[in-house]
Amino acid sequence: MWHKREMVVHESDPYNAEPPRNRLLAPLTDADSFYVRNHGPVPELSPDTWSVAVTGLVSEPVTLSLGQLQARFAQHTVLATMQCAGNRRSGFLPVRDIPGEDPWGPGATSTARWTGVRLGDVLRAAGVHDAARHVEFAAPEVSQLADPPQPYGGSVPLGKALADEVLLAWGMNGAPLPPVHGGPVRVVVPGYVGARSVKWVRRITVRADPSENYFQATAYRVLAPEEDPDAAGPGDGISLGPVALNCDILSPEPDERVGTGPVLVRGYAHAGDDRRVARVDVSGDGGRTWCRADLDAAPSPWAWQHWRATVELAGPGPHTLLARAWDSTGACQPESAAALWNPKGYVNNSWARVPVNPAAAAD
Ligand SMILES: Nc1nc2c(c(=O)[nH]1)N[C@H]1C(S)=C(S)[C@@H](COP(=O)(O)O)O[C@H]1N2
Ligand SMILES: [Mo]
């Protein structure tokens, strides 16, 4: 059974857990605090016997051991944020319940320094055919959550698969990739929903079409509010790829007593894929007035940015602190979770809301 210290554990089997809010204030997330999202058991794979097969629409199909990957291709390190499409799902639950899905808070998001080889280098060496449009990743662990039960998998468009930032990674923050995060080797697709960063990858198939795996064709899709998720089949709903603009407040904590006067508010913002965070606004008066947060420089084009702002709280409260990010396309996060609610609870990127100074309980 997997376990990390001090995590908010949503499920123990399969192990699904997120770090406490304050652990997300560091620019890099320790492997011990990095969120874990599993759909099945963590496979025990030895780096000595692990290999990955590269097949499908390629001229020279090949099977590569870890040693061969390391010997044949240049090593690269990318600092990147990973974000689950279910991040902040808990914000949807007051709108309408989402049975069967974990109530993730702000912590289904973490950032690490990933080391490996470029997937593009491996694909180019295998010789990608003209008809190729998508690259599929297959893992060995069978998920009972899939219908029918099947190994976890997914795909990304060929253009993204060939991009410099996409890695077959064996290192995390300078250490070997831990088994729970996909060791010996996982795919890392910066800027895309975490679901495409397939852990324990054993087969890479170049295809004309997206993967037919349950987690690509049926799950990780945004259904319309009135649709029945149990009746949804392959191709229904909006397939998720690039991460949506998002932010959350990391300090103060929800329901913290902060008193009146100036309060330091801190958080993260992440724009996803080729967009950048351009501005973050914070309000201490329910959105009547906003102040502009100081935004840290991005530690990498693929990583979140932290921000801070001092807001004045008028009177004892209760108050709700708000934050909203803008990206380099000029888009702003939507105001309400109610407008975004969907049956599987993906992509809650509504304004961050943290209540503080709760009313004293009546005796
Ligand atoms: N083989 C495999 N890969 C997987 C998953 C999984 O269950 N099995 N979960 C995916 C999802 S939904 C996310 S958000 C990320 C989480 O990676 P982490 O557990 O290292 O944080 O892994 C992705 N890759
Ligand atoms: Mo995810």
From TrEMBL:
One of its GO terms (biological process) is sulfur compound metabolic process. GO terms for molecular function: heme binding; molybdenum ion binding; molybdopterin cofactor binding; sulfite oxidase activity. Its cofactor is Mo-molybdopterin. Pfam families: Mo-co_dimer, Oxidored_molyb. Residues 245-357 form the Moybdenum cofactor oxidoreductase dimerisation domain. Gene3D superfamilies: 2.60.40.650, Oxidoreductase, molybdopterin-binding domain (3.90.420.10). Keywords: Metal-binding, Molybdenum, Oxidoreductase. InterPro entries: Ig_E-set, MoCF_OxRdtse_dimer, Mopterin_OxRdtase_euk, OxRdtase_Mopterin-bd_dom, OxRdtase_Mopterin-bd_sf. Residues 39-215 form the Oxidoreductase molybdopterin-binding domain. PANTHER family: SULFITE OXIDASE, MITOCHONDRIAL, SULFITE REDUCTASE. This is Sulfite oxidase. It comes from Kocuria tytonis. The lineage of its organism: Bacteria, Bacillati, Actinomycetota, Actinomycetes, Micrococcales.
